[in-house]
Amino acid sequence: MASQIVLLRGVNLASRNRIAMPELREALAGAGFDDVRTYVQSGNVVLSTKLKPAETVRKVERLIREKFGLEIDVVVRTRAELARVVKSNPLGDVADDPKRYQVSFLAKKLDGDSMRKLEAAAVESERVVFSGREIYAWHPAGVARSRLWAALAGRSLGVSATARNWTTVTTLLAMAEES
Q1: Does domain 83-178 have CATH number 2.40.160?
Q2: Nearest alpha-carbon partner for 81 in 46, 114, 116
Q3: Which of 11, 52, 113, 119 stands 20 to 30 A from 20 (CA)?
Q4: CATH number of this structure's domain 2-80, picked from the four choices 3.30.70.1280, 1.10.3630.10, 3.40.50.2000, 2.40.50.100
Q5: What angle do CA 67, 69, 74 make, to 5 degrees?
Q6: φ and ψ at 28, to 5 degrees?
């Protein structure tokens, strides 16, 4: 059994797409996943499975649709993949507030046009780094009014994606390494 990190896009934002984490853990365990744990309320799951990540994505999306009646995008990384994300940390020398340092996890790499649009959305103080299926973004003035953040959080990327702040990323890795 291998640890996988399951990231749900857009759950429990205000009153939208509500999924109680205890119910999600129970549903995932009932579907055959082992050692199911969640972190905070925003759809972060660490579990163990023999499935390949793409199979986990399909199974979790189907389970959420059937059990909760929601169409939720799911992105999965293995423990080793998440460890590489943390080790890479290309903005670690400038990102001094983990809540303003975001990693967007994508289902597949972005095309060149999408990358250029994101770079153009960044203001002078912001930084964005593309690395395979991840986008690292530093928002020193915060994410609330950031055009870069709005572009990353929207659906205009043309690929399933979900972002987590650096604290969440490193916590999920620690949880996966406990398994």
Answers
A1: no
A2: 46
A3: 52
A4: 3.30.70.1280
A5: 80
A6: -65, -40
Question: Would you say the C-alpha torsion 45, 48, 51, 52 has a positive or negative sign?
Answer: positive
- Provide DSSP, 69-118: -----EEEEEHHHHHHHHHH-TTTTT---TTSEEEEEESSPPPHHHHHHH
Q: What pLDDT digit, counting tens, does each position of 103-160 carry?
A: 999 999 999 999 999 999 999 999 999 999 999 999 999 988 899 999 998 788 889 9
Contact 44, 38 (CB under 8 A): yes
**Residue for token pair 């423990």:** 79
What's the one-letter identity of residue 138? Answer: W
DSSP 68-79: H-----EEEEEH
Give the burial string for 127-157 (b: 16+ CB within 10 Å, else e). bbebeebbbbbbbeeebeebebbebbbeeeb
d(CA 17, CA 39): 17
CATH 3.30.70.1280 domain extents, the chain: 2-80
* pTM of the predicted structure, to 2 decimals: 0.95
Task: Say how far apart CA 74 and CA 72 lie, in whole Å.
Answer: 6
